[in-house]
Amino acid sequence: MRRLSLLLIPLLLLAGCSVAGGDEEKGKTTVTFRLWDDQVAKAYEQSFAAFERAHPDIKVSVQLVPWADYWTKLPADIAAGTTADIFWTNTSNFGVYADNDQLLPVDPDPGWTKPVVDLYTRNGKLWGVPQLWDSIALFYNKDLVGKAGVDPATLTWDPSGAHDTLRAAARKLTDSRTGTFGFNAAFDQQAILWDFVGSNGGTWQSGDTFDFAGRPKTEQAVQYLVDLINKDHVAPSAADTNTNGDKTLQLFTQGKLALFQSGPYHLKSIQDGAGFAWGLAPMLKGPAGRVGVVHGVAAVASARTPHKDATVEVLRWLGSADGQKPIAEGGYAFPGVTAAQQAFVDYWKKQGVDLRPFLDSATGTTFPAPVGPKVGAGGTAYTPILQQVFLGQLGVAEGLKRAQDAGNEAMKG
Fold first, then answer.
1. pLDDT(15) > 50
2. Is 132 helix (H, G, I), strand (E, B) or coil?
3. pLDDT at residue 24, rounded to an integer
4. What does DSSP assign to residue 187?
5. For 144-175, how does the pLDDT look when each residue is reduced to its tens digit (9 = 90+)?
6. Residues with Cβ within 8 Å of residue 157, at least 6 apart in sequence
7. Measured between alpha carbons, how far is 223 from 253 in angstroms, rounded to an integer?
8. What pLDDT shows up at residue 3?
9. What are the residue ranges of CATH 3.40.190.10 in the chain?
10. The whole model's pTM is what?
11. 321-366 residue pLDDT tens
12. Is the separation of the CB atoms in 114 and 311 below 8 Å?
């Protein structure tokens, strides 16, 4: 098992504070673990069963809080001192807790996925144990691309048009008579927007501040996407995709979308829902190359846990290959521990799916997802403005300026 040592920091434990997981059961110390994904929760149940066999004095209780409620319940529980001892977080939300001494920092392990370690490193310290990660690749409908004579692996996009092959391919793959679209251009930040910005050499953030307005390469990338939707009509209307984040996934599994750039988090849905042959190709190549987002979920520990030693033991387990093996073997996600990664690759290989495009994307040039103590609030503020841009109701340059101002203002609050 890989070891995880906690840096020594003063713990400010409030007297009389009741922390979730504080009850003792038959001489055991109960450590609570919170997450938002019901599928991955099944893998954790298996993992913690193995942990408890090796640690009979510790019980791990899994708390499932749906995504829709997660980010309203978490800050309320942290303020009340009733949060779980260990909980999942994403990059948009961990900074505010790290900056306010509400998390236990951890020492990085060389066996953890480096891009995820980098994402959760702030002010010179690592604040979470990588649990799972995803990168971006291109799903494609083999029947549709075959009939159109399109090779997904060679597609490039270029706002100047000089080296652009995506637009022409998407037109070939679009059929208005059958309601079939060529590509999933949409306001999908992780799978589409940030990847296009990055692969054009653009920027999104500088430090903890949004920095995308007035940036020509960023504006070019956004304009290209907006044109695919509203000018070329090779992508679904933003009126549908803005209000339904799963719309393009649904179209793809229905055979109504030929090219679907997305992450491994949709593998199981596509495997279960697609009634046709499909494959994976490298993500689209832009003027700056293939540049995609690598995102990850980390497990963080509350600095206010009343049983630090037991919590540390659970964190050690969560940072080990054995602890993450059920996540990988069940085909749920790429695990944060690299030694467990092959089990995930092998699972999908047995399903006839080669995950190499995702692996190549993660080890190539990457584009950082926004981070910062209040970046979640900033993203919430700019989202409706950028949705107007994708609808074609607001010009790209003006929309990016309004969105940046709204986002940065929200992060001051």
1. no
2. strand
3. 54
4. S
5. 999 999 999 999 999 999 999 999 999 999 99
6. 164, 165, 166, 167, 196, 199, 224, 284, 285, 286
7. 27
8. 29
9. 24-134+295-359, 137-293+374-412
10. 0.89
11. 999 999 999 999 999 999 999 999 999 999 999 999 999 999 999 9
12. no
pLDDT digits (tens, 9 = 90+) for 67-112: 889 999 999 999 999 999 999 999 988 999 999 999 999 999 999 9
Q: Hey, what CATH topology would domain 137-293+374-412 get?
A: D-Maltodextrin-Binding Protein; domain 2 (3.40.190)
Question: Where does 24-134+295-359 sit in CATH, by number?
Answer: 3.40.190.10
Q: Which two tokens stand for residue 326?
A: 């059920």
Token pair, residue 217, equals 């390469």
Distance of alpha carbon 50 from alpha carbon 47, whole angstroms: 5
Using DSSP's 3-state secondary structure scheme, residue 103 falls into strand
Number of residues that make up the chain:
413
CB atoms within 10 A of CB 10: 7
Task: Copy the structure tokens of residue 212.
Answer: 């995308």
Give the integer Cα–Cα distance in Å for 224 and 220. 6
Residues with Cβ < 8 Å from 32, sequence gap 6 or more?
Answer: 20, 21, 60, 61, 62, 63, 84, 85, 86
Name the helix (H) or strand (E) containing 70.
Answer: helix 67-80
